[in-house]
Amino acid sequence: MAELTVFSYRCGKSILHKLDVRFKLFFLVLISFTVIKAEFTALFLISSALMSVLVYIRFPIMSSLKDLKYFFFLILLVFFARAFSATGSVLIEWRFIVISKQGVYEGLLVCWRLFLIVFLSLAFISTTRPSEIKAAVEWFLIPFPFIPGKRVAIMMSLIMRFMPVIYDQVKDTADAQRARCIDNKKNPIYRLIKLLIPVIRRTFEGADDLALAMEARCFSENRTDPVLSSSRKDWIVFFVVICLCIVIIKI
Q1: pLDDT of residue 43
Q2: How far apart are CA 61 and CA 51, in angstroms?
Q3: Residue 248: burial class (beta carbons within 10 Å; 0-12, 13-18, 19+)
Q4: Which residues have C-beta within 8 Å of that of residue 55, sequence separation ≥ 6?
Q5: In angstroms, rounded to a whole number, what is the distance separating the alpha carbons of residues 244 and 165?
Q6: At what angle do helices 101-126 and 69-85 cross, to 10 degrees?
């Protein structure tokens, strides 16, 4: 049996698992846009609510932090980029390196927002089947006749299914390189290149194999999707989320 990753769907009986996927997708987009505009007080409120939701759905928070170690490297780069580029009162100055208080403040805000958006997405992925996401994307694209909704929905579904595969490839490649003492190299750029090139090559090879397999089986866009239906609890949660977003915007 394949090991569940941070990008895998996890069965459950929580309210979030039972919500209509169309509402969940709308909530994800709405809260993400709200987070982008939020300040420290609002971000603290969103973080508290998100942490409560993650604990409620039994999301493995600690193991996911370990799995997202490369994401934290990106977060660190974003923080230093904002800290070095923003102007304001000087906090640290050493030769040509200048870090301002405004830069540190903006860097913390941007990193916090990215962190929340990532965990919002993980909560959505872990409580929603890829087939339901495909059906929801196709439903939202129905009003746009110039967009091939079925094709876009299938692409989204394949991306969702490929994310755990890519993660497994990264993990296997890292283990293989660790066995060959690549970690003993002091240059982090060298280690990163040696990791990315095999992962990218194996990812493209896997995509080619999947495309050939789909063609060999006469894969068609006309698939039987899950039936989407909403209930009273979906609208109750919709009202709660709208009120929460309004409060966050007003803060």
Answers
A1: 87
A2: 9
A3: buried
A4: 61
A5: 35
A6: 150
Task: Please answer whether residues 126 and 59 qualify as being in contact, where contact means their C-beta atoms are separated by less than 8 angstroms.
Answer: yes
pLDDT at 190: 74
CB of 43 closer than 8 Å to CB of 109: yes
User: How many CB atoms sit inside 10 A of residue 201's CB?
Assistant: 12
Contact 107, 80 (CB under 8 A): yes
Cα end-to-end distance, the chain, whole Å: 47
Give me the residue spans of the domains in the chain.
15-223+230-250
71-106, pLDDT tens digit by residue?
777 888 888 777 777 666 666 666 666 677 777 788
Flag residues of the chain having pLDDT under 70.
1-5, 86-98, 220-221, 223-224
- Cβ proximity of 20 and 229 under 8 Å: yes
